[in-house]
UniProtKB/TrEMBL annotation:
One of its GO terms (molecular function) is carboxypeptidase activity. PROSITE patterns: LD_TPASE (PS52029). It comes from Flavobacterium rivuli WB 3.3-2 = DSM 21788. Belongs to the YkuD family. It comes from the Bacteria. The active site is at H123, C146. This is Protein erfk. Residues 33-170 form the L,D-TPase catalytic domain. SUPFAM superfamilies: L,D-transpeptidase catalytic domain-like. Keywords: Cell shape, Cell wall biogenesis/degradation, Peptidoglycan synthesis, Transferase. One of its GO terms (biological process) is regulation of cell shape. Pathway: Cell wall biogenesis; peptidoglycan biosynthesis.
Length: 171
């Protein structure tokens, strides 16, 4: 019985260390001009002038495989877009707007006779109690098609990502 207690204590200690250990910050005065998302790896890479600055672990839409086809399909789009908006007062802890849908997305949605949708964002956690989830949100894909990071990470991105930065979202 003592061995089981030690195993549980060791697990809880490791978990607490992971949960509370702060992530590496971006270098001061970073200006992110490109983001590359790899949906299959749940990673978003931040670049300045071709140099990798940081890799973020992300959560995606509840239906993460494949390209977003229409509004409400809970998929995260794939393709090349830009960061076209910033909102410090959304239902989530800040967000950066992604220029979805582009012309190709609109044509494809029209073929399906569905609205292409919009409002795809990089955002933090839902305002209120969800902020306490911190890194735990990464264990499942939970958004309606957006790219989610922790609140601290979206604060960092909000300051560092330049308007019009390219975001490339890959399968």
């Amino acid at each position: 019985m003592k061995k089981a207690r030690w195993v549980i204590l060791l697990f809880l200690s490791g978990f607490a260390g992971w949960y509370f250990y702060p992530a590496k910050s971006l270098p001061q005065r970073s200006v992110i001009d490109k983001l590359i998302v790899y949906k299959s790896k749940r990673q978003m890479l931040a670049y300045q002038n071709g140099m990798l600055l940081k890799t973020y672990t992300v959560a995606l839409g509840k239906n993460p495989s494949g390209h977003k086809q229409y509004e409400g399909d809970c998929s995260t789009p794939e393709g090349k877009y830009t960061i076209n908006d910033r909102n410090p007062n959304s239902g989530y802890h800040k967000n950066l707007g992604i220029s979805y849908p582009n012309a190709t997305d609109k044509i494809n949605a029209k073929k399906l006779r569905k609205p292409a949708g919009g409002d795809v964002k990089i955002h933090g956690l839902r305002n209120g109690v969800a902020g306490y989830l911190n890194k735990l949100h990464r264990f499942t894909d939970w958004t309606n098609g957006c790219i989610a990071v922790t609140n601290d990470e979206v604060d960092e991105l909000y300051e560092a990502v330049k308007p019009g930065a390219v975001i490339e979202i890959n399968p």
